[in-house]
Specification:
single chain, 325 residues, alpha/beta, Rossmann fold, Dihydrodipicolinate Reductase, domain 2, 2 domains, globular
């Protein structure tokens, strides 16, 4: 039985991850620590577990932690968990600076604990099928990719630059970049981006467009904008058009859904009926600990994806392409 605790539930994904832990027969949700006592207490009630006011008390009772804090606190909580020898699943992006991301990786290596980054899209059924097709060479050599990861504007700490590290570009670029790196095994070598605030009255970017060059000349564009209104039937999308020398793959990760007209929620909603990708992520994390294997999504994966988002912001400031090391 893998005993798991949360270090902060500031990110809304914490509740889906917590539900997944509670569904697994080989895992136990021991408790939640959150610096916001009210948030932590309510979260513990929702997830049917205990709230801890002292993170060390919780760390002494678990084997692993899930970190769902504000982005800027990922390093703080990761280093604390590593100090107590606990394996870590950290919400994306890995951090808000390269320095912090590298420090997290080094802290976990020094403590001999595993650091996995939460990119649940790798466990989405359509996405995994595309990965298999590309591995089998179904469309020949990939030449170009057009991607989107649109979403709703989340508000709260997501629009506080000090806590989030960036707006829509930071929030959504990392998902698409991680998938492309996983699909092709190639790194981004150059980024040109535009980012702006055009949709909401917030002091952070809510829309943007990235043009990326990968190794071997593969060309990628991505729209990471918070362009879905609050009344939209789902939070957003993950789509790709992958053009190869022998064909094209069209991917819509959440197209398999039914429409729910809910008087209770007073809105129309899309309910996806493919396998639960968040459950897949948590199941993989628990199995990694039990099997004592390397994470399927490493700290380095998280660092590379974040580096592209940071380069995009630099490109938008300089109004020219930015090369990545």
């Amino acid at each position: 039985m893998v005993r798991i605790g949360f270090l902060s539930i500031a990110h809304m994904h914490a509740f889906s991850y917590g539900d997944a832990v509670n569904k697994l027969p080989n895992a136990q949700l021991v408790g939640i620590y959150d610096p916001d006592k009210e948030r932590g207490t309510k979260g513990a009630e929702t997830l049917k577990t205990r709230y801890y006011s002292d993170p060390v008390e919780l760390l002494n009772k678990v084997d692993a932690v899930i970190i769902c804090s504000e982005n800027s606190r990922h390093r703080e909580f990761t280093e604390l968990a590593a100090q107590y020898g606990k394996h870590i699943l950290c919400e994306k992006p890995i951090a808000t600076t390269i320095e912090d991301g590298q420090a997290m990786i080094e802290a976990c290596e020094k403590a001999n604990v595993k650091l996995q980054i939460a990119f649940p899209c790798r466990f989405n059924t359509p996405i995994r099928r595309v990965k298999d097709m590309l591995d089998q060479g179904a469309i020949g050599n990939v030449l170009a990719i057009r991607g989107t990861n649109h979403g709703q504007m989340p508000g709260g700490w997501f629009v506080d630059r000090e806590l989030s590290g960036g707006g829509a570009v930071m929030d959504h670029t990392v998902h698409i970049v991680d998938l492309i790196r996983w699909f092709l095994g190639k790194e981004v070598i150059s980024v040109y981006a535009e980012a702006d605030t055009m949709l909401y009255d917030v002091d952070i970017d809510d829309c943007g467009m990235l043009s990326m060059e990968l190794e071997d000349g593969v060309f990628v564009t991505q729209d990471p904008s918070w362009s879905r209104p609050s009344t939209f039937p789902t939070w957003g999308d993950v789509t790709m058009e992958i053009i190869g020398t022998d064909g094209v793959i069209s991917l819509d990760a959440f197209a398999q859904n039914f429409t729910l007209f809910s008087d209770k929620s007073n809105k129309v909603m899309h309910k996806v009926y493919t396998e639960d990708m968040d459950f897949g992520l948590i199941k993989d994390f628990v199995e990694m600990i039990e099997e004592d294997r390397e994470p399927s999504i490493t700290g380095f994966d998280g660092l590379q994806a974040m580096a592209v988002a940071l380069a995009a912001y630099e490109s938008a400031r300089r109004k020219e392409p930015v090369k990545l090391d």
